[in-house]
Amino acid sequence: MTPALHPTDDLWFDYAAAQVDAATRTLLEAHLTYCEPCRTLAAEAAAVGAPILREVAVPEAPPGLLAGILARLKTPEPPRVGREVLPLPRALWPLLPDLSAATWRGALTPGFRFLEARQPGGPSLFLVHMAAGRPFPRHGHAGLERSLILTGGLRTEEGVMEAGDFDQAEPGHIHSPVALADEDCWLLATLEGGIRLQGWRGWLQRMARK
Questions:
Q1: What pLDDT sits at residue 54?
Q2: Do residues 134 and 183 lie in contact, with contact meaning Cβ atoms separated by under 8 Å?
Q3: What gap in Å lies between CA 111 and CA 178, rounded to an integer?
Q4: If you placed Cys at 23, which of 75, 119, 171, 174 could pair as Cys (CB 3.0 to 4.6 Å)?
Q5: CATH fold of 1-210, please?
Q6: pLDDT for the residue 188
Q7: Is residue 111 packed enough to be buried (19+ CB in 10 Å), middle (13-18) or exposed (0-12)?
Q8: Neighbours of 74 (CB within 10 A)
Q9: Which pLDDT does position 199 carry in this prediction?
Q10: Cα distances (Å, whole numbers) of residue 183 to 114, 134, 178
Q11: Which 8-state DSSP code applies to residue 52?
Q12: Closest CA to 124 of 205, 24, 29
C-alpha cells in the first residue's frame, strides 16, 4: 500500500543535493522503503541536479559517512535497545543508527516511551513507541517537527497516519495524537526546539525548568 502523505518536492531536491541533515536523511530514506512514487521522484531530482553538482566544488564528506556506507553493506542485524529487539520492518534495519546504548524515556503517560539518537550536524533523531490505543499528551512545537510512521498508525486532528506516511508540523502547531487501537505505533521524528506540553503537564514542565 502506497503511503498517503509524502515529503515535499523541495525536500527531495534538497535530499538529492545532499542539503539535509543526517536525521532528516534517515527519515527520507526510511520513507523510500515504503513509497515507489517517491523513489521515482528522488531519482529524478538526483538526475536533474547532477549537471549542477559537477560545476560546483565538492564539499568535504561529513564525519562517519564512509563508516555508515560500509556498515550498510554488511548483513543487517535487527535494531536493539539493550537486549530488547525492536519489532521494525527489515528494510529499515540498515538505515537506523546504533541504538544499543540508548535509554528509553517517558512523558508522564503510560504506554508511551521514546529514545534519542543524537545525529551530527543537525537535530536529533527520536524513536517513539506508543502502545495501541494510547494517546500522547496534547502539546505544541517550539520548532519544526518531521515524523514518519514505521508500523501501526496514529489518529490526529488532521486525520489518520499509517505506515510510511510522512508529516511535517510547523512551529506553534498543537495536537494530541492517539495510536490506532489495533496495533502499537512506532515512529521516527526529528524536532527542532523541543515540545511544549499543554494543561497540567505543561505546568509541571515549566516548573521543572525554573
A1: 46
A2: no
A3: 11
A4: 119
A5: Jelly Rolls (2.60.120)
A6: 96
A7: middle
A8: 8
A9: 55
A10: 17, 10, 11
A11: H
A12: 24
In sequence order, the β-bridge partners of residue 84 are 81
Domain residue limits, the chain? 1-210
Q: Determine whether 138 is exposed, middle or buried from the number of CB atoms within 10 Å of its CB (0-12, 13-18, 19+).
A: middle
pLDDT score at 53: 46
Residue 40 has a pLDDT of 92
**Which amino acid belongs to residue 129?**
H
Which among 127, 123, 83 has a CA at the least distance from the CA of 101?
A: 83
b/e string for 1-35 if b means 16 or more Cβ within 10 A? Answer: eebebbbeeebbbbbbbeebbbbbbbbbbbbbbbb
Q: Mention every residue, 6+ apart, whose C-beta is less than 8 A from residue 14.
A: 20
Euclidean distance between CA atoms 43 and 55, whole angstroms: 19
Cα separation, 124 vs 134, whole angstroms:
24
Q: What is the pLDDT of residue 177?
A: 87
CB 120 within 8 A of CB 22: yes
Closest CA to 127 of 116, 139, 118: 116
